[in-house]
Amino acid sequence: MAHKYAVETELLRGPLRIPETVPEVGVRKSILEDLALKTLYVTGPLSIMELAAMMRLTFRVVDELVHRLRAEQLCEVTGMSGNVAHIAISSRGRARAMECLSMNQYVGSAPVSLDSYKRQVEEQSVRNLQVHLPEIQRAFCHLVLDSATLKKLGTALNSGSSIFLYGPAGTGKTSIAMALSRAVATDPVWIPYAVEVEGQIISVYDPQVHTKVADPVTDDSDTRWVLCRRPMMIVGGELTIEMLELQLNQITKFYSAPVQMKANNGVLVIDDFGRQRVRPEELLNRWIVPLDRRIDFLTLAGGQTVEIPFEMFVVFATNLDPSTLADAAFLRRIQTKVRVGAVSPEHFHEISRRICDDFELQYDAPVIDELIDTIRNKLKEPLRACHPRDLLNQIRWAASYEGNVATLDRDALAAAVDAYFVPEGQDPDN
After folding, report:
1. Smallest Cα–Cα separation from 216: which of 12, 2, 1?
2. What are phi and psi of 381, to 5 degrees?
3. Distance between CA atoms of 256 and 203, rounded to whole angstroms?
4. What is the pLDDT of residues 310-354, one digit of tens each?
5. What is the rounded distance in angstroms from the CA atom of residue 163 to the CA atom of residue 297?
6. Nearest CA to 192 among 412, 16, 419?
7. Going from the N-terminus, what domains does the chain have, and what CATH number goes with each?
8. Tens-digit pLDDT profile for residues 75-94
9. Dihedral, CA atoms, 287, 292, 294, 300, nearest 10 degrees?
10. pTM of the prediction?
11. Is the pLDDT reported for residue 1 higher than 70?
């Protein structure tokens, strides 16, 4: 295990060497100079050390940039702290900074180059992962699944491609989809704060999606990159075709990465597939090439097309018939299809027992047996993984309303069933 960690650590260090000169940054000097000017304009006077920290570049690189800005009389030295100069923007520099801000208002970490981003994403690809039974068992230990389903899920993850989860509502597809990310979260990945493309800035790192990893290896690496857990992004009915494209903020004039770019090197879940605001065939047509060739094409406002890696594990989860959502050509590209259906009585008991433990209720097997009989034989419903939690929540809510302690008994469960299920064929007027 120690050897494996040492190898992974070396891989993390290698591609992210700290740039010590402006050419090593990989971004045009003019872009870096403009960023330095905008930073000075927005923040006010700074020491070179403070400016370097804000731009996430080394002192040596920023000192080189400032030397050029001073030569053009765009900034000036206002004092010294030891050997470190304090600088302020000049009136000429202020005019130039305002011109730069009119083109884009991005201030912060210096961006990485598109080539650097491509190389790093491909090296961190989910296709390079090898998942085995112990990892799958740990990732899904909070769910009750049979061994055949676990094997299919593990096989799908080793493909590094995509999976189709389908079956009736309430059978646990979303929970399974979210747990898949836990199975691939064993090693961290590098996410850039921003990427420069054709002079444009694309913001990538999103604290709502990316979770930082505290690791000493980051002390020796390029701080324009953030060491994070492999991302897990879930989109549902709110998904539109526009969310799959670069998002240009009309005020700040720089781009936010689309959902699939933020999910690179991780898991992207399309939940309730078929119920999005974007039509299924439109989404599938948009992604038929990325799923096959592992690359995506994004368009800048000026019409330039940019090739971006499409390196993530995509999960489609739906309670609709897959054959009505996608044609054979698309389904062929999704190598693994897993039907998530009704649970067995044994699994229903185990789920109920776990939920009782979570809710601090006394588990009663005979009462659960009666519930199973009611659902299957009286209501003519299949047993679904959501039933135990939903019904026990009904018991808790009713007890809270009445000011009582929640108890799992026949009367409480009967009231929960009456509140939860809609009997088949019931006349709404009676």
Report:
1. 12
2. -110, 150
3. 5
4. 999 999 998 888 878 777 777 777 878 899 999 999 999 999 999
5. 22
6. 16
7. 28-107 (1.10.10.10), 116-339 (3.40.50.300), 345-420 (no CATH)
8. 999 998 888 999 999 999 99
9. -40
10. 0.86
11. no
